[in-house]
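Thread: "does anyone have the structure for this chain?"

Original post by V.I.:
We have the sequence but no experimental structure in hand. Need at least a predicted one for the grant figures.
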Amino acid sequence: MLLVLACVVALDQLTKRAVEHSIVPGEEHRFLPGVQLVDTRNRGVAFGFLPGDHVAVTVLIAIALVALLAYFARHAARRLMWLPTGMIAGGALGNILDRVRHGSVTDFVKLPLGWPPFNLADASITLGIVTLIVLVDASRHAKQ
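Reply from O.Q.:
Generated one for you, tokens below.
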């Protein structure tokens, strides 16, 4: 779990710094068909939801992170539970580091159809939650 967490934080921070040093805020760079790279600041949680006071958001995220780690501690023996825990915790920690340093989070991946820009930490959290749900559901079905 700690290795996944460390990899997510490292990749997240490296990509954010690369964007901050190569893209001027307000510019858009074509990356892939339908995908733009931008440099925006987000004061909300993942994908720009719940914008507001970054201290309150950081405390809310920290509480959720403690709850996740407590869940992991109780269910660590479950197969692959370390993977989504590391993904979610790494993503949360990556964004918390930005909030502490800058008061906001750097988002840089912009998809079409008005989807809010996001970063690797947001993607890791989202994929981690989906993976966690699949693992919990599979574990529940295995017990039946």
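V.I.: this helps a lot. The longest helix spans residues 120-143.
O.Q.: and The CA atoms of residues 110 and 121 lie 14 Å apart.
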